[in-house]
Amino acid sequence: MAVSVLPFVAYSSATEALVPAEEWEDLYASLQALKAHVQEYPGCQRFDVFVRAEDSGDMRIHCYTTWDTPEQLEVFLESGYTFERLLTDVGLPPAERSLVMEKLF
User: What are the tens digits of pLDDT across the range 33-55?
Assistant: First the structure.
């Protein structure tokens, strides 16, 4: 008898932004608060932030959220407090790119 197993799937958002060096310290504190807040949303599995210092000193930030279902991700993107909204609220340049993806494994 053959057994079929579906792949593990989770649903994620990815947002990339370039933040001026002089704004990084304040944004870092805001990102910590945002992570704590978002992780309380139903279905949030993870909130990860990766950074890289550019030669100019500016910080390239990649922010990922991962969710149990596509519906939970959709609600977060439509009405939750996202990294993109945080950037706008603190007066920083908008995100360069945002994607919605499926995590297979």
Answer: 999 999 999 999 999 999 999 99
